[in-house]
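User: Before I run my own analysis I want an independent prediction to cross-check against. Here's the chain; please return only the structure tokens and, at the end, one sentence I can use as a sanity check.
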Amino acid sequence: MLKLHRIRELTLAKPSAPGRPAHLSAASGLVVVQSLLYVVADDELSIGVFPAAGNAPGELIRFIDGELPNSKKKRKRVKPDLEALVLLPPFKHYKHGALFALGSGSRENRRQGVLFQLDAHARTKGDPRLIDLSPFMAAIENEIGELNIEGALGTQDRFVLLQRGNRGGGINACITMNLADLLHALASGDFMPAIAFDVRRHDLGAIKENPLSFTDGAALPDGRIVFTAVAEDADDAYSDGACLGAVVGVIKSDGTLQSVQRLEPGAKVEGVSARLAGDGIELLLVSDADDATVAAWLYAATLKSRTN
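Assistant: Structure tokens:
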């Protein structure tokens, strides 16, 4: 078992809209850059930014106009479902890099991305750019079937999407493409074309006969991927189900599975950041409470580091 340590609740200085709580609840992606934590929540029209140290309330950065219904069922139907957040290196028009958030792709209205330009202090600047990911995701869907993109990460030359499987027909996989191709497409316009990619399926095991499936990932400098996965009592990419347990694992640079460790407590972790520190891998993780009235938590844990 890998012990999770609670750090703080993801409280906000003010709620995203009238009738909403002053916290993020459905935290689904995490990026740590300099002194800031960026968190994407799959049921909001904003991303959250929090101080990396202390427990001061976070702020929201709006990426699209409009309002979402407060009713859970109605909100679920129309939300953009941003599930993945990744830090991109500097590229054309983005001197200090960018944050890239992606929808899950599980419905037509969930095939949108958002680019947030960063300044030298890792703060967002200017207006976010909305990116139509429909052709890009349609090409992936044609290859693997039911989509549910839950994580994204970038290495020196690769961009990897983590596809979350389920008990029904959805597969669990790493979808890998050339990072330069992705950055070129993002710099060229607000319409993401199909990009050549490879697919590698992964069997992460199961809990109570429910498959463990990816919820996020982070790249290490040596080419390995640290991932989170949960076993959820659900038959497809749209339905929610009870979280039966969660793990953190490592995929080696050659794409093979290195290790999987069960988490205690078994929180539904959906975002992870990882860095090498001495003989370990220090992790920060965020959870999805699956209940708007309950705040998501930031957790910490340390993995023993092994080389390839």
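Sanity check: The radius of gyration is 18 Å.
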